[in-house]
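Recap slide: TRXR3 reductase, sequence and predicted structure.
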Amino acid sequence: VLIAIGRDACTRNIGLQTIGVKINEKNGKIPVNDEEQTNVPYVYAIGDILDGKLELTPVAIQAGRLLAQRLYGGSSRKCDYINVPTTVFTPLEYGSCGFPEEKAIEEYGKQNLEVYHSLFWPLEWTVPGRDNNTCYAKIICNKQDNNRVIGLHVLGPNAGEVTQGFAAAIKCGLTKELLDETIGIHPTCAEVFTTMDITKASGQDITQKGC
């Protein structure tokens, strides 16, 4: 990565102070409650402007649709800002959905979590002889809730495609048991999530000898 360009929240010159809408003075973003409502009850904010939320176009679209449905359609559905699948499209893609491990520990406590992980070697890398054990997969499970998967992370080819599929399963309450009962498609990168048996706490070796 040679240069990364962020976004500025241009909120200081649009009159928000006139009606009393609070902003985060450090970054110009707007704090809201779980219904995208600002401190002024009749003013809502959605999208990248939200303080502490993901700057992703599909998230903004979903939040906007749900807000409109709540305001004018009698709905009560709120946007889920946790189980959002996303990918970094670097040459070796990184995809994730749900909690990062650090946030999961803050939210649930380390003693209530089980983290399974594995290195893996994509089949398409065997012919050109690319390095083994470069790709990585991890799931974070809540032991207090039937080992429900609350975080999924993958570093490898087509991580975006892999993550998008598992994201739907996570929304449906995916558990470690269900992953173990799922028959993997061999040889695929996503198969690694159906064969994980080493926990991070065990300290066991996670390197793989073959594809």
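The chain has a mean pLDDT of 93.
DSSP finds five helices and five strands in the chain.
(End of recap.)
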